[in-house]
Amino acid sequence: MSIRPRSSRLWHRHSKNRPIHWVLTQLAKSATFVVIIALLSACGNNTVSVRVLYSRLDNTIADNFLAYATFSDEQKAQIERSARAFQIWHRKTQLPRYSDYMDRLADRLDQDTVLTEPEISRVFDTLEAFSDDSFAKSPMADSSDFLISLSDDQVKEINQHFARRNANTLERIRTAELEDSDRAARTAKFLRRADIELSTAQIDMLKEGFEAYSGRRENRVTAWQYWQAEFIALLRQRNREEFALWVENHLSEYRSQMEIRFPEDSRRNRHTTIQTALRIVNSMTTAQKQKIAANLRKTSSIFRKMATSKQTGVI
């Protein structure tokens, strides 16, 4: 059975920003992880750890890639070169953007006035745009040649890797629900590590937000399973003339799976997240806001130095 592109509108809705190689989903996750760590953990007292973490980004990306299958030496070298090139691009072009944005956030918090829903929504939009840009500049955006080079055994290994990861994720979800259902407490603990201390009332706001979430947590795995099954079907047709276009279109939808498979839940949960963040930020004391603003500026300064460093190792 052949897998062909769906309607032009659906297939190309996100292709401008997200034409990526399947294995670079790990790169994009790592890049997004760096953004989150930068905006949170680095805003606390862990700046040395963040410098080391960021300096190892290329190795982290390559290791994630290599876990999918047994690659040849040539394929491994290509993955490692791509990961290294991405890190250099990200350090030089993206860290200055994060730095500028953190300064603007700090300035806004220093005003100590009520934030509006559109302002909070724009924060989420900006973080998503940062992540999208990392996807768009993926060093293996033109991935069809790499995919065509895969052997049947490698395709089988990739499929098995998908299955193992899905099973492990489902088990983690079920274990977390059985052993620790207090997601608000876990989130507050993470924020404390980022030097953001929430009050009891603010933690209760977090809990109310989690309780208002729509859909099941397993839905995320279900969404990826659909995408993975279609992707494996495409890989089995990698010698077809239309393969490059088909796989580019399919890969462009990777990050939109929840919106595609569970659109109403996704819309409601985004709204809930924005409303929860809005309540918490507007309930913060002047001291809380000033502390976050100071940490943002400290991290902004560190990022500027990292961006201009000529080192490619530990910065």
Which key phrases capture this entry?
about 325 residues; mainly alpha; 15 helices; about 75% helix; about 0% strand
- Percent strand equals under 5%
Average of pLDDT? 80
Strand count: 0
The termini sit apart by 51 Å
Instruction: Note the overall shape.
Output: globular
Whole-angstrom Rg: 21 Å
Following the backbone from N to C, one meets helices and strands in this order, namely: HHHHHHHHHHHHHHH
The largest pleated sheet is described as:
none
Q: pLDDT below 50 for ≥5 consecutive residues: which ranges? A: 1-42
Helical content (DSSP H or I, runs of 4+): over 70%
Q: Helix segment count?
A: 15
User: What would you call the structural class?
Assistant: mainly alpha
Write structural notes for this entry.
The protein starts with 7 loop residues before the first helix and ends in a 7-residue tail after the last helix. The chain has helices at 8-12, 24-39, 47-55, 57-66, 73-110, 117-136, 144-148, 152-179, 183-193, 200-211, 219-235, 243-251, 257-261, 263-283, 286-308. It is mostly helical and 315 residues long. Helix 6 crosses helix 14 (263-283).
Strand and helix map with partners:
Layout: H1 8-12, H2 24-39, H3 47-55, H4 57-66, H5 73-110, H6 117-136, H7 144-148, H8 152-179, H9 183-193, H10 200-211, H11 219-235, H12 243-251, H13 257-261, H14 263-283, H15 286-308
Helix pairs in contact: 2-4, 2-5, 2-6, 4-5, 5-15, 6-14, 8-11, 9-10, 10-14, 11-12
What's this entry about, in short?
This protein is mainly α and 315 residues long.
